[in-house]
Amino acid sequence: MENVFIMDHPLIQHKISMLRNKNTGTNEFRKLIEEIAVLMGYEALRDLPLEDVEIETPIEKCKSPMIAGKKLAVVPVLRAGLGMVNGITTLVPSAKIGHIGLYRDPETHEPHEYYCKLPDPIEQRLIVLTDPMLATGGSAVDAVRMIKQHGGKNIKCMFVIAAPEGLERLHREHPDVQIYVGHLDRELNENAYICPGLGDAGDRIFGTI
Ligand code: PRP
Ligand code: URA
């Protein structure tokens, strides 16, 4: 699928296996999510545009490449997406941070919006949307729609684990968006949880189980 990138780096796979373990506690889970975000961010940002800038070394003046354009915007989907933000800002410390608040209704599994604040001018920024889980795809489809309604154009989405159903839906509804997935899992269960998955990402990051 064009614009869909499934990670195959052994370090990412190893850390995702540790995340899945039900005996991994909150502290370790949080660290792993952040480390995975660093590794995925490294892959997802390899096409950042560069421009030559004049630099004076101790030896002589030269032109040397630096990241071009407006600072990128990291946009976590609350709550669980927050766990990946520090991973991306480790790579790009000057990134601006927006927030999108969505929660999934436990009965219908439909997303409900409760917050949206994005850094201006959003239309000039590369936007990196973060959420550990892509299940039915409802939350991600809505989050991308909200960003586009605010003028966002250049969007990359990062998910640690995705279900095939959600990946297909997000790609179908927003084919222009680049989607990065740490691991593509088997399927959704009757409660729209990812199998084998890792359970509820937000609860495991914040210790609210
Ligand atoms: C989880 C997850 C995604 C969403 C995925 O969040 O972090 O945002 O569910 O499911 P979907 O693809 O079926 O929409 P949740 O709604 O549980 O909120 P939380 O992060 O506040 O726990
Ligand atoms: N949200 C989660 O946190 N986990 C799932 O498996 C599905 C949605």
Properties at a glance:
alpha/beta; 209 residues; Rossmann fold; globular; binds 1-O-pyrophosphono-5-O-phosphono-alpha-D-ribofuranose; 13 strands; binds uracil; 6 helices; single chain
Characterization of the model:
The protein is of the alpha/beta class and 209 residues long. It has a single domain, classed as Rossmann fold, CATH 3.40.50. Helix content is 31%, strand content 31%. The chain contains six helices and 13 strands. Strands 1, 4, 5, 6, 7, 8, 9, 10 and 11 form a nine-stranded mixed β-sheet that branches. It has a two-stranded antiparallel ribbon with strand order 2-3. Strands 12-13 form a two-stranded antiparallel ribbon. Helix 1 (10-20) packs antiparallel against helix 2 (26-44) and helix 2 packs across helix 3 (85-91). Uracil binds next to helix 6.
